[in-house]
Amino acid sequence: MMDITTTFRGLCKAKKSLNKLDGSANGPGGLSAKRPATPFVKLALGVVTVITSIRDQVLARKKDYLDPHSGLSERDRNVIEIETLQRLQACSDSLKELRDDVQHNKTQIKTHRMEILRMVEAYLAGETDH
């Protein structure tokens, strides 16, 4: 799976630059137009942030973890595994909470939030498959 994060960020910067040239950076539909974040959105973004930090920590420790001569003891490896699994479980619990919250919404909001959940779950699955 290809990571398109840098491409997306580049497109956002280009769009922001164009909006500044047009003088419409703060207009409706501009990138800087902010809506107040709902508790659902805050929790979903928090889950994405935690998943990203788990990924970064796993990648940072990967070399030492896999190298038998790195100086990490089995106890150190077990601590790393337990911490990572606890954080992944917390993400799963948060996703269940979000899913339960979605069930109490109206159709249009429910559809939108189900799509957000699907994307966050796909991100979690993609990061845990490595």
Task: Report the biggest beta sheet as strand number plus sense, adding barrel if it closes.
Answer: none
Q: What's the number of domains? A: 2
What portion of the residues fall into strands of 2 or more residues? under 5%
**Parts with pLDDT < 50 across at least 5 consecutive residues:** 25-31
Q: Compute the gyration radius: what is it?
A: 19 Å
Number of strands: 0
Shape: flat
Key structural traits:
protein transport; coiled coil; transport; single chain; membrane; 4 helices; 130 residues; mainly alpha; transmembrane helix
How would you describe what is shown here?
This protein has 130 residues and is mainly α. The chain has two domains: 1-34; 36-128. It is 75% helix and 0% strand. It is built from four helices and no strands. It has helices at 5-22, 39-66, 74-102, 107-128. Helix 2 (39-66) packs antiparallel against helix 3 and helix 3 (74-102) runs antiparallel to helix 4 (107-128). The N and C termini lie close together (11 Å).
Offer a concise description of the structure.
Keywords: Coiled coil, Membrane, Protein transport, Transmembrane, Transmembrane helix, Transport. The protein is mostly helical.
